[in-house]
Amino acid sequence: MGIAQKTILLLLLLAAIVVAGEYGRRFAPKVKPILQEKISKFYGKTSESAKRYKEQTAAAIDTSIENAKKQVKTIKLFLARKPKPTRTKRTDKRIVPELQIAGGTYYDMRQGLVGTSFLIKRTTPFGTITFVNIHGPPGWNGSKPFVAKLYQQQGISKDFTVHWVFTPPITGKYKAYASAGGKKLEAVFYIDTRSRMRAPQIVGQKLKRARTIIEWLILLEPNERSFLVKIEAYPSNRILKYAVLPGNRRSVAFENVPFVTGTKYRSMVFAFSKDVRSPTEMTGPFNMSAYTIPYIFIRDEYATPW
Length: 306
Known about the structure:
Elements: H1 3-19, H2 22-80, E1 101-108, E2 112-121, E3 123-124, E4 127-128, E5 131-135, E6 146-149, E7 160-165, E8 172-180, E9 183-191, E10 201-206, E11 211-217, E12 226-233, E13 239-246, E14 251-255, E15 264-272, E16 288-299, E17 302-304
Parallel strand pairs: 1-16
Antiparallel strand pairs: 1-2, 2-7, 3-4, 5-6, 5-8, 8-9, 10-11, 11-14, 12-13, 12-15, 15-16, 16-17
C-alpha cells in the first residue's frame, strides 16, 4: 500500500474517532502525532522526489542540448567539406598505356612455330618512338633483348609497325622499353605459345611480267584481320612487289613485275590476327602466320621450284 493510501486511511480513522465523541477525545491525542508524522514524511518524501526529478530532468535537458549541438556541428562539417570525385565503373573507356605493344606467335606452314611477332604503336603523346627494347622470359632470344627499329612501313598504318624475330616464343611475361620526348616509356604484355594462327596456303599463281596473280586460302581460321603479300628475290630479299590487304581478300594482282629469267624468287603470303592497315585495339595477342613458294622464273607462266 502506498503512502497516500495509508494517509487517507489514517484521516478516515481520525474522523471516525472524532465522531465517536468521548472515545475520540481519549485516543485522538495519541493518533494525531502519528498522523502528522506520516503526513510530514509523505510530503517530505514527495518534495525530495520532486527535487530529484527536477534535477534529473534538468540534467537530461542539458545532455540533449549538448547532443544537439554536436549533431549540428557534425552536419555543418559534412556540408562544408568538398565532395570526393565520384568513381564510376569504366565500360567502354579504358586507361590507355603510353607505350602500346602486342605480341604473339609466328607460325610457318612448312616449318611450324618459327618466331615471335609484335605490333607496336610508334606515336605517343610525347612524340614518335624510334626503337623499342623487348625483354622476354629467361631463355628467350638467347636471354638478350630484341631491339625493334621503328619506321614507316609500306601499307601499314603510319602510327604502327609490324616486327618479327626468328626466335621461337616462350610462354610468359614480356616487357618493352622505349623513350619519346625525353620521357621513358614501358609496357608489359603476355604471350601464350598455345595461341597460334593457321597459315594461309597459296593455291594458284600466274607468273607473268605484265601481270602476276597470286591466290590463297586460309582454312578454319576466322581470326585473320589482314594479309601481306609480296614477291621477293632470293637470297637478296629484294622486294619486287608488295601489298597489304584486308582480311576478306583471297587474291592479288601485281602489274609489271620485273622478273629476270633464271633468277630465284619467293611468293609469300602473311596473315595477321589484327588489321595492320588501321589497328583499332591492342588487347589480346598479335599472331601471324606465313606460306612461301620458292621458284626459279624461266619465262611467263613457267617456273620451277628450287
